[in-house]
Predict the structure.
Amino acid sequence: MNKIKVVHINTSGLGGAAIACHRLHQLMLDNGISSNVIHLYANYKPDTEFYSLGYKAVRRYTNHLMYNITQRDLKPEAYVFSETAPIASGIASHPIVHEADVIYLHWVLGGFFSKSDFEELAKLGKPVFCFTHDMWWITGGCHYAFDCSSYKVGCTKCPMHKHFSCLTKKQAKWKRQFYAKYPNVRLISPSDWLRRCADESSVIDKGRCDFIPNVVPDSIFKYIDKMTAREQLGIPQDKIIISFGTADNSNWVKGFVYLQEALNSIAKGRILLCVYGSDYDDELASKLNHPIKFLGRLDQEMVAIANAAADLFVSPTLSESFGLTLLENIKCGTPVISTNVTAVPEIVKDKVSGYLVEPKNSMQIAKAILSFIEDPMRIDGNCDEMFSDTSIISRHIEVITKALLN
């Protein structure tokens, strides 16, 4: 039997969706699947064997113009809304796509896919799996619905738009028609919570979404001796290390402000906050009453070291489609404080692998930190079998095989 050929498509070579895309690509290669990756931007390591389309000047200008117009119509409290690109990329005619048996779409917005790109790919008749790294695939255009349930009834009037809520209604209608027209298009969700959201969405039939977690490589994210990890990073052995990870400290969905408030309510002592994923932030450091160390942007091997070096990882997130950093820390033997929302409880088991608190509640975060300091929780890196490499690749092979037989 010939190798199954898979192509993964993602706009950028950087970011959370790119990490998930690259890890799944590598896992497939390691398990005998022929896998390739295509990006729009060539912003990945030069020694990496990925393909890029290149972002032509005309497309860049047109897409940015459309983006600016749609973003100005959003209310200040809105998070992210995305329209499809106005100019097609022609991705369906790429030779790698034509050679593939199966197509995986990850995050393909940001000026990459137009509606005609989606249509032309689907027309190829190959199984197309849309990986829901956020909620865009099942809404009228927002990436996180938060408390809004309009995606269940068609996004007829989006509360986040000032004037043009018709944009969400039109996009929801297009998605509903697109999914109905192409039964070869399915969704894959990294969490059971998001799978259930897909089942409740008005744009796609119930049962068209499979739940398969994101890959957190077992060979990299595993229990590492804490003292050794701290030596590698130059972190003091006598401090209580609390860590926080994000590529953008200003991203309010990550909830850093609630960790800041929690720490500032705790008397100065042995606590040291370590932040990885972002460069030094003077404004952030000036607002904290405890010492802070910025570890910078790390590759995944060093992220695992940073995880192991910490006593406790805190993520006051307001929404998670999966919770990559949570699972990475737990696999490295570091307990987690996070919010009892969306997909988080599927990874963090309260009083077992960490502590669950209510969203936007800095007092509960402070209480959990103090509880840990008084009686430290120890975990050994073990987690549910469904998060193992073996289980994840088995599920992907299962859904691919089933789709190819249909």
